[in-house]
Amino acid sequence: MDKRPEWTAHVRRVTPYVPGEQPNETDMIKLNTNENPYPPSPAVFEACHNLDPAAFSLYPELSAGSLVRSLAAYHGISEREVFVGVGSDDVLSLAFLTFFNADKPILFADITYSFYPVWAEVYRIPFACMALRPDLTIDPADYDRENGGVVIANPNAPTSIGMTVSQIEDVIRANPGVVVIIDEAYVDFGGETVLPLISKYDNLLVVRTYSKSRSLAGMRIGYAMGNENLIQALNDVKESINSYTINTASIRMGIASLGDEQYFQENLQKVMRTRERVKEALREMGFDVKQSQTNFLFVSHHTVPATEIFEKLKQRHIYVRYFSKKRIENYLRITVGTEEQMDRFLEAVREITGTF
Amino acid sequence: MDKRPEWTAHVRRVTPYVPGEQPNETDMIKLNTNENPYPPSPAVFEACHNLDPAAFSLYPELSAGSLVRSLAAYHGISEREVFVGVGSDDVLSLAFLTFFNADKPILFADITYSFYPVWAEVYRIPFACMALRPDLTIDPADYDRENGGVVIANPNAPTSIGMTVSQIEDVIRANPGVVVIIDEAYVDFGGETVLPLISKYDNLLVVRTYSKSRSLAGMRIGYAMGNENLIQALNDVKESINSYTINTASIRMGIASLGDEQYFQENLQKVMRTRERVKEALREMGFDVKQSQTNFLFVSHHTVPATEIFEKLKQRHIYVRYFSKKRIENYLRITVGTEEQMDRFLEAVREITGTF
To answer: What burial class does residue A80 get, using C-beta atoms within 10 Å of its C-beta: 0-12 exposed, 13-18 middle, 19+ buried?
Structure first.
């Protein structure tokens, strides 16, 4: 006999996204959620220390206006071409809800950000997955078929591999009737951005986040850029769900971060230098390491199984990310940490793989 | 000829909620969005000053765990009975998406929080509006009919009028097969809460906010309490949209606010005392003023039209809320401000209505 309450029959059925573990050990090395190992800019510290809690009794600025204007100025576009959300997950899920209402399936890669099928399911959007090539790259030709929309992470996650602007442009050109979302969460770490194309294609939405390159995952800021009609549609749906999403503290720190370009660039350079060093070291230990344009490495060892490395690292309080998913079940995704963290990581991997 | 791009055919059609104006004049008196006129507790100031931006490079705690635990302890319930969101609008919209998936219409009052029909539209939920009685109170018997769910603001907005626990319990008892949401955004200002009923009815969801009674509208914190199966369903849908919504700063300040009960109660008393004084003063000036259990007053003048008072107050940089809606088109909603703000407000109203 079914003893579930009657109301459960009308609960939306979902398969939630499972984020990386958030362990909290004092001596741990956390390389599993692609956070930036360096603090945000000193300008963000200053903005934080200047916060006046008395102002928190009022609602935040409507549509996070001053942050939108700062982002527009930073990227040299109009403020009507910028939309801000609670991290890029908020922006992307709203974009799915806003733009993907056709009967035809939306298209994305079989191996990509695992939130895409989750959003499709929660909003009841049909979708089809395009298989990556054997080398885990995306074939632009796969997206030249009937569909209800396209979403591509570029560079892709967890593969770390980027596409060129011309490859992405092929995809956009093949899909004038639907919205094409390019998720550039990791683009600042050496990828090619298609941002300049938003003035050429009115159906292109470019999504960014403060969580990786700007060291502000904890303050939840993401944004989208595109033709003003796209941004207006996003705003209309957002205003139909929650008038005020970005809080006053995030607005202030988001603006402050944009004002310190030198720190931003130096931070990116540090992460990329460490990434290249670790990549070479891992290759010497017998790893296949994909050419990364992100702040993480996607690696597979020639002899030692990924699960074994994963577990043995965990025993040493080093957390990396493992996806139990066909085709990548022997890979690990490793966030690039500080030089010191990566030294300890490499030492542990050397022990585990027996390469001394 | 239709020149709209083809992709616009698949954009979700919505009629966004229109929040109250957010003017920004130095000498203004803002009584239009029901914010608290007093700052948050000194404990919140301390939590803010103790924020360490270095920690913002990491994602916030999963599911805002420590805030959930603090709320559970504060209300004397289990942490599995608490869900936290980005303001109560986030919580309520998620609850609509999660629980209202039947073919039958959900029910709410014809005059109530104007976001309810907006959420129903964006998520394509059928709905029916139950007319308030002529005195603008809710008739519990209206909710004893076939439906796909019920949502009641108690006390109701913009009427300011509350229902008793026993009236609400009648509604819950009549609806065992669907989820009943009681939106208690204003309950701290003298309303009757149905929170104790969550252990008795597994289909009751009680929603609260930090935006009014806790003076933290700017930090965006709302929450729901209910049977753990309801909370689990909400969490599953939330985790299917955005893993991290409440940022690190909001978590810290949200916890700090709960720790200062004395300030909280004194703040509430101050607002309620001012409310009663202003109510009497307005009645003396010829206003019909509803018996308020909120931090605002819902008023109508016997001779001077609401629109005229609204416009003339605005000329004096005093902002109140007017709803151009049948049956309440001659009412104004006035947030209770500080004693000084209300003195200036009353003086202005005296001039406008000619009562000296």
So the answer is: middle
Residue that has been written with the tokens 């202003």 in this structure: B278
Cross-chain CB nearest to A7 (options B11, B19, B99): B99
In the three-class reduction of DSSP (H, G, I as helix; E, B as strand; rest coil), residue B333 is classed as: strand
Task: Choose, out of B8, B11, B83, B228, the residue to mutate when testing the contact with A (most A CBs < 10 Å).
Answer: B11
**B25, B220, B228, B264: best to mutate for the A interface, most A CBs within 10 A:** B220
Separation CA B181–CA B195 (nearest Å): 11
CB nearest A249 (choices: B62, B211, B249): B249
Query: Which region, left, alpha or beta, applies to residue A95 given φ > 0 means left and ψ of -120 to 50 means alpha?
Result: alpha
Q: How far apart are CA B60 and CA B221, in angstroms?
A: 14
DSSP one-letter string for B290-310: ---SSSEEEEEESSS-HHHHH
Tell which phi-psi region holds residue A71, choosing left (phi > 0), alpha (psi between -120 and 50) or beta.
alpha
Distance CA A75, CA A64 (A): 17
Helix count (H) and strand count (E) of chain A? 10, 13
A236 reaches B (C-beta below 8 A): yes
Strand pairing report for B222-226 and B82-85: antiparallel
Are the CB atoms for B330 and B300 separated by under 8 Å?
Answer: yes
Residues in chain B: 356
Structural tokens at position A29: 């090395």
Beta-bridge partners for B181 = B151, B205
Angle at B180 between CA B178 and CA B185, to 5 degrees: 160
> Is the bond into B117 cis (omega within 30 degrees of 0)?
no
3-class DSSP state for residue B200?
Answer: coil
Tell whether B102 lies on the interface with A, counting CB pairs under 8 A: yes
Amino acid at site A311: E
Going through A193-264 in order, the beta strands assigned E by DSSP cover: 204-209, 222-226
Q: pLDDT per position in chain A (356 positions), as tens?
A: 457 888 899 999 898 888 777 887 888 999 999 999 999 999 999 999 999 999 999 999 988 999 999 999 999 999 999 999 999 999 999 999 999 999 999 999 999 999 999 999 999 999 999 999 999 999 999 999 999 999 999 999 999 999 999 999 999 999 999 999 999 999 999 999 999 999 999 999 999 999 999 999 999 999 999 999 999 999 999 999 999 999 999 999 999 999 999 999 999 999 999 999 999 999 999 999 999 999 999 999 999 999 999 999 999 999 999 999 999 999 999 999 999 999 999 999 999 999 76
How far apart CA B34 and CA B32 sit, in angstroms, is: 6
Q: Enumerate the residues of chain B whose CB falls inside 8 A of the CB of residue A5.
A: 176-177, 202-203, 229
Provide the token pair at A89: 């997950």
| Closest by CA position to B191, among listed B214, B163, B216, B212 | B163
Which residues partner with B334 through β-bridges?
Answer: B297
Q: Where are the alpha helices (DSSP H) in chain A?
A: 42-49, 65-75, 87-99, 115-122, 165-173, 228-238, 248-258, 261-284, 306-315, 339-353
What's A26's DSSP letter? T
List the end-to-end C-alpha distance of chain B, in Å, as a whole number: 61
DSSP string, A113-177: -THHHHHHHHTT--EEEEPPPTTS---GGGG-S--S-EEEESS-TTT-----HHHHHHHHHT-TT
Task: Tell me which residue of A22, A209, A101 sits closest to B58, measured CA to CA.
Answer: A22
- Residue among A253, A241, A243 nearest A217 (CA): A253
A251 touches chain B (CB under 8 A): no
Going by their DSSP bridges, the two strands B287-289 and B296-301 should be labelled as antiparallel
| pLDDT single digits (tens) B87-142 | 999 999 999 999 999 999 999 999 999 999 999 999 999 999 999 999 999 999 99
Tokens 């035809």, located at residue: A104
Per-window interface: A 190-209 vs B, CB < 8 A: 202-203
